[in-house]
Amino acid sequence: MKICPNCGFEYEDSIEYCSDCGAELILKEESEKLEEKYKNWIEVFSTPQLYEAEMVKTNLETAGIESVILEQKDTSFPLGGELGEIKVLVPEYREEEARMIIEKIGNQKEDYSEDNE
Ligand SMILES: [Zn+2]
Predict the structure, then answer these.
(1) Ligand 1 centroid distance, CA of 25 (Å)
(2) Do 26 and 44 belong together in one domain?
(3) Tell me: the pLDDT tens digits for 69-81?
(4) Does the model's pTM come out above 0.70?
(5) What's residue 92's pLDDT?
(6) Separation of CA 5 and ligand 1 centre (Å)
(7) Are 66 and 94 in contact (CB under 8 A)?
(8) What's the gap in Å between 31 CA and the centre of ligand 1?
């Protein structure tokens, strides 16, 4: 059994892509393993911009906090026709630290990115 990581629809093993959204299907066991692994992980940041998610991840890892970027993998996320939201997750017990670091990044960014867009 395969499953679409975006919409969560299930498909036969012989099918490669989701007929609804075109995403590459993953094995259902794989998706369950991922869910199990990240069950106690918490979303601390979300953005439509991959580079922002990557910047946050880099900063967290510099501080010794394990983190992961999820791109539209959460089936509860409503796709509303816009760019998919990208999320950064950290283990639950590091949440506080992670939020403090992300807050600092946000403050730094405002210093110079005011007129950049
Ligand atoms: Zn799909």
Answers:
(1) 8
(2) no
(3) 887 644 444 444 3
(4) no
(5) 95
(6) 7
(7) yes
(8) 13
